[in-house]
Write a structure and sequence with these properties.
With about 210 residues, this protein is α+β, with helices and mostly antiparallel strands. Helices cover about 45% and strands about 10% of the residues. It has helices spanning about 5-10, 35-40, 70-75, 80-85, 100-110, 120-130, 130-135, 140-150, 155-160, 165-180, 200-210; strands spanning about 50, 55-65, 90-95, 190, 195. A 5-stranded mixed sheet has the order 1-3-2-4-5. Helix 3 packs across helix 6 (about 120-130) and helix 5 (about 100-110) crosses helix 10.
Length: about 210
Amino acid sequence: MTFTRRDLLSHTGTALLGASTLALGLAPVSALAQSQEDLAQASPLGDMQLGSADAPVTVIEYASMTCGHCASFHKDTFKAFKDKYIDTGKVRFIFREFPLDPVAAAASMMARCQPQDKYFATLSTMFDQQRNWAFTDNPYGALLKLGQQLGMSKQQFEECLTNQEILDGVTATRNHASNKLGVDSTPTFFINGDKQSGALSIEQLSEQVDKHL
């Protein structure tokens, strides 16, 4: 499935809420062969990352902005993980988009339209307030309100959601993860190539990271 600009800008919200996980054409994990080359392939928009490029461990997260488990991870675990591993030079963290529906795709695009140094703060705000914008009868209005909170005018908001390059990049990132890496749920983590799924606690994540230190 390919998200369209009409999907993302529907004022009624019908199109925005019309996609389901099953409609995205995700390939079964058993049919896929993961390679380090495939895992290392950055988003066409460039990878968004934190931490030292020389860190001994690389953690890649694939997440959907409308995923409740992803929100739980970022609210309950990420700060402790960042303090313990990213800020101490042990982990390089990469966040990649895996939208499960057009609302998530639109939110991902909005994050990409923010200044790069505000990207992760934007993700934090979106996950913290997910219930306010991700599951409403008027997703256009909810996303516009969110955009204005992030400092976007209505014109900037609509220009962002009609930016074909960003839409194509977000879609390509998701499709690569599905077709080449076997990602079929969110959040999914790759810890130096080892795949882990679900909203890991700091204890669970530490156990996996420490194996590579």
